[in-house]
Specification:
single chain, alpha+beta, five-stranded mixed sheet, 7 helices, binds copper (II) ion, Cytochrome Bc1 Complex, Chain D, domain 2, Immunoglobulin-like, elongated, 17% strand
């Protein structure tokens, strides 16, 4: 009896170590690119150790019993009858209870650590929309940079203040580990301190409609100097764009996420391409044909459901509450797409 316990005990430990080494070497996680990632990975590692041990604890005695205590040829005796074991049952209730409580405590401490506030954090406003992202940086001299790329300086905490234009989305960059929902009508926050320069991708982790899969945008972590250079360049572009109607229109379109559905180069999308849109003869679902002039485009933006382009779905395009000047700017921009 004693002998079996010793053998099983040794096998459990050997098996647990092998499973842990195996799982650890597969590289289940992408590269660690934020301080939050190291916190989370520390916790995850602890859980993999517990899982490896528990798996071995169950499977090794099971397989050992199957082999060592199998019925021998010619053995027709009955197995030993047992009436339960109170000591064993108390042990396997109390012990896991403490383990689970310990993990809950460590998890709470760890969660708090990933949310540690740096008062110097840079604030970026994030909007999620079907099916794109926009990132608005803090204004500099009255100019605001809005981009569909998230640029971050390495080593500096960023506070993402996030909301959604339509349905619930979820901000997720696997290399940063942390994830947060974007909810219409509410602002949710996520703090990230990038630690590794590189190009990553934000993707939406909440099934949000037809093109959910394509809701991806670049996330670029660079040195502070490269970030500043990018910012200066973007500010210059914003400044220049604000001088002309088509420039303002293009900026507005970028900030509103229209390009999630409308291409500007003729490629197909959720909505019709804007290439050569102005002056185009547009066939509608009711069989009529309209010329895409100022009035038609104006109506298409204010009341998208009034006329539906043949081959496209009604209801997909949200109505936009722009001023007449803003719409005139957008039309000026669309006119340049030839
Ligand atoms: Cu989404």
């Amino acid at each position: 009896m004693q002998r079996h316990f010793v053998i099983v005990g040794i096998l459990v430990i050997v098996m647990a170590v092998l499973i842990y080494i195996g799982l650890d070497s597969v590289g289940l996680m992408p590269v660690q690119a934020s301080t939050q990632a190291s916190d989370i990975d520390w916790m995850w590692n602890l859980e993999v150790i517990a899982m490896s041990f528990l798996f071995a604890l169950i499977v090794v005695p099971l397989v050992y019993s199957l082999i060592v205590f199998r019925r021998r040829e010619g053995d027709t005796t009955d197995a030993e009858h047992m009436e339960g074991n109170t000591k064993l049952e108390i042990t396997w209730t109390i012990l896991p209870l403490f383990v689970v409580m310990a993990f809950a405590y460590l998890g709470a401490v760890n969660l708090a650590e990933t949310r540690r506030v740096d008062p110097e954090a840079m604030v970026v406003n994030v909007t999620g929309l079907q099916w794109s992202w926009t990132f608005e940086y803090p204004p500099v001299n009255g100019l605001t940079v809005v981009s569909d790329e998230l640029h971050l300086p390495v080593g500096k905490q960023v506070l993402l203040r996030m909301t959604s234009n339509d349905v619930i989305h979820s901000f997720w960059v696997p290399e940063f580990r942390v994830k947060q929902d974007l909810v219409p009508g509410r602002i949710t926050e996520l703090r990230i301190t990038p630690t590794l320069e590189g190009n990553y991708k934000v993707r939406c982790a909440e099934l949000c409609g037809t093109a959910h899969y394509s809701m991806e945008k670049p996330v670029i972590v660079s040195s502070q100097a490269d970030f500043d250079a990018w910012m200066t360049e973007q500010l210059a572009l914003a400044e220049e764009a604000s001088q002309t109607p088509e420039g303002r229109g293009e900026a507005l379109v970028a900030a509103s996420g229209c390009v999630a559905c409308h291409s500007t180069n003729g490629s197909p999308g959720i909505g019709p391409t804007w290439l050569n849109l102005f002056g185009r003869q547009e066939a509608l679902t009711d069989g009529s044909v309209v010329t895409a002039d100022e009035a038609y485009i104006h109506e298409s933006i204010r009341a998208p459901q009034a006329k539906i382009v043949a081959g496209f779905e009604n209801q997909l395009m949200p109505a936009y509450d722009f001023t007449d000047e803003q719409i005139a700017d957008i039309i000026a921009y669309i006119k340049t797409l030839k």
